[in-house]
């Protein structure tokens, strides 16, 4: 029996996660009504549907809300007024998941760490599957692969708004930097949502937090918590191109995608989580060596005949992610940035721009604001579109330099998402650089 067997459920949103929530609820004997904001009708759900309408006036037992529905959304506010419990698809899936959960949250790098952990477990014949924000909805995993030992789940702050009872067995907070402040009240609220993922951990569970982060007393005292980072106080430390951990554990990272000061802390967190899950240091090292990074995350498209490297980091949708990309580049950079800003402080990037960047080619809605903020530190050219930016950078780049798309913003002024933006950049690079 599960908590949500045979309930009368309201599901908000008929996207991928909403549809799998519907399927799981129906499979557990539930009665389901879907309300969606879309004009398009889809009769394939097999449930009562109310498209772009008001919430039905009836007594539901639970509401399952898709991540796009913020706490301030009128439908969520109405549910609260009715006293109707609101949960996420993630929370619904977790209630029925019978395997273990390794959960990863943070501001950047989550998907890569989830992929690394899931890939490495599978390499060692420990069945694992990525789920949540990266991979498949957890409800889908419950229904299609219930035999899997580990669900490696990427958890967003949006999901945690409606997941107060979510209980992973290994929980990793990779980093916390300003992001999604267009959704959350402020940085403090965003950080508290990240830490909420740890609220239900018990004595048998394991928490991993970055060194120096104040957990604000939100971490249960009974939980084993290790810190990771680059400082000597970290239980899991990246230094000298290797991760060292308790009991003499050592994992070499040299020559791997994680073998640098920017991604080294993520390697430390991943090694700690995997060792806790039962792997050896040698198995973790083999996973590092075999890891293939995701597209649009510091993805080297190639080096052209003139010796100019072209790198797609379209997934960098925050300025802190752009700062990390600039530090990782290792060569003088010609940066393509811009789009729709999600944060207000542009000036903190000036120091790293001054140290790494030859010129910035600005695109999208915030190009003028970025130019105003950065022009004193680095030459800036307002190009408007990625087409013009690639053309200008191709004409000016010199041997030994890198042309880096790392926008620091969302893409929704000109693209459907970061993937479309990165794919367009790659097409343009192939045309102008002959790659």
Q: Can you lay out the helices and strands and say which pair or pack?
A:
Elements: E1 8-12, H1 16-27, E2 31-36, E3 48-51, E4 62-65, H2 74-82, E5 86-88, H3 89-96, E6 100-105, H4 110-123, E7 128-132, H5 138-144, E8 150-154, H6 157-160, E9 170-173, H7 187-196, E10 206-210, E11 224-229, E12 236-239, E13 242-244, E14 250-252, H8 264-276, H9 281-290, E15 299-303, E16 309-312, H10 319-329, E17 333-337, H11 350-356, E18 357-363, H12 367-374, E19 380-384, H13 386-396, E20 402-405, H14 418-433
Parallel strand pairs: 1-2, 1-4, 2-3, 4-5, 6-8, 6-9, 7-8, 9-10, 10-11, 11-12, 16-20, 17-18, 17-20, 18-19
Antiparallel strand pairs: 12-13, 13-14, 15-16
Helix pairs in contact: 1-3, 1-5, 3-5, 4-8, 4-9, 13-14
Give the gist of this structure.
The protein has helices at residues 16-27, 74-82, 89-96, 110-123, 138-144, 157-160, 187-196, 264-276, 281-290, 319-329, 350-356, 367-374, 386-396, 418-433, and strands spanning 8-12, 31-36, 48-51, 62-65, 86-88, 100-105, 128-132, 150-154, 170-173, 206-210, 224-229, 236-239, 242-244, 250-252, 299-303, 309-312, 333-337, 357-363, 380-384, 402-405.
Structure notes:
This protein is α/β, with parallel strands linked by helices. It is built from 14 helices and 20 strands. The protein has three domains: 8-84, NAD(P)-binding Rossmann-like Domain (Rossmann fold, 3-Layer(aba) Sandwich), CATH 3.40.50; 91-290, Mur-like, catalytic domain (UDP-N-acetylmuramoyl-L-alanine:D-glutamate ligase, 3-Layer(aba) Sandwich); 299-433, Protein-Tyrosine Phosphatase, Chain A (Alpha-Beta Complex). Strands 7-8-6-9-10-11-12-13-14 form a nine-stranded mixed β-sheet. Helix 1 links the parallel strand 1 (8-12) and strand 2. The protein starts with 7 loop residues before the first strand and ends with a helix.
